[in-house]
Amino acid sequence: xxxxxxxxxMKVIDLSGGVAxxxxxxxxxxxxxxxxxxxxxxxxxxxxxxxxxxxxxxxAFSLYGTLGKRSLALDLKTPQGKEILWRLVRGADVFIExxxxxxxxxxxxxxxxxxxxxxxxxxxSISGFGQTGPLAARPAMDPVLxxxxxxxxxxxxxxxxxxxxxxxxxxDMFSGLLGFQAIATSLYARREQAxxxxxxxxxxxxxxxxxxxxIRMIAHYLERGTTVRTSMPNGVFDTADGQINVTMIRPGDWxxxxxxxxxxGLLEDPRFAxxxxxxxxxxxxxVVLRPMFKARTTAWLADRLSANGIMNGRVNSYQEFxxxxxxxxxxxxxxxxxxGVAELVPMPNIPGLPAFESGTRRAHAxxxxxxxxxVLKEHGYSATEIAALFQDKVVGGR
Length: 398
Fold this sequence. Notes:
The chain has helices spanning 20-30, 60-65, 79-89, 103-107, 111-117, 142-148, 151-154, 170-190, 205-212, 214-222, 254-260, 275-280, 282-294, 298-307, 318-322, 325-330, 372-378, 383-391; strands at residues 11-14, 34-39, 70-74, 94-97, 122-127, 199-204, 235-238, 243-247, 311-314, 333-336, 345-348, 395-396. It is an alpha/beta fold and 398 residues long.
């Protein structure tokens, strides 16, 4: 077994769409599995391909979610499409679906049916609210679950006090990693079995959101919503030329903080003299601190705070982050060529794996149906049969 391709030789059928399911399957592909992404040949394929600005067959979402996979554009509403999928199921190790609960069963590919054909298969279902319960059939995406699980209430705007969703696909991405770990550990357990036994794994975005926010959830529940502020002061402060985040969690940080910003007079102010006093008068403290920060540059503050052991970070745009010397020094990013994209695409390298290289399978995001012919040929279809399937629009792409 190669550390760089732990799942080499394994076949994964990925019927999921959006972010959570595809990102999970993408991780399997990055670790060596042959991931066949099955998506409709109609309306642009997986809907993640058309979210936001598009670049031929891709958006930013699908450039990440399809990386390292092969794409088969297949109409599962046709008898021929279903027969093709059954051929793919035979010999598969993992089956991933992300339809609304009940939909995959109507197509005829529920766990009972698939496991009857391939008993050793690891079958993974990802949904919004779960497979059962009063909300199971409700449509859901990341913003909906951020609101439902309580995360939005934690992200109140400083000026308007109104709850806001976190702009990134927070729950989707975390759920993708949860799904990957569940599948990976299942494959690890299965490898020692004389007779391979599969299993059904279920994950919902609701569960992903709960796990993501578990510490704050516990604190809020035990303290009935009146959680103790653990970092005083902390947050984002405007500076003379930008913004900086400051995080303090120990009472002993107060003196070195005041010394760092050259405001030791605060140490004598009875409103802020003790950790408890600062907690009571925190709003007043922010009123005092903000003009002090505004009078200094970000670099001056960062240097002084860091020298005194106070955690801080310049507030960057994504473009500024990508240009940071620390990013280049640690090699955490690769810049990839992708068809249809006029410039190089920044892609974080995956821990434990080699850096991405343009032109390799791992670093390629396939177009819709890019591998349809290849996949069909590998599964026993002749050139004549493949041509007919294209002609009848059962498959798409090339």
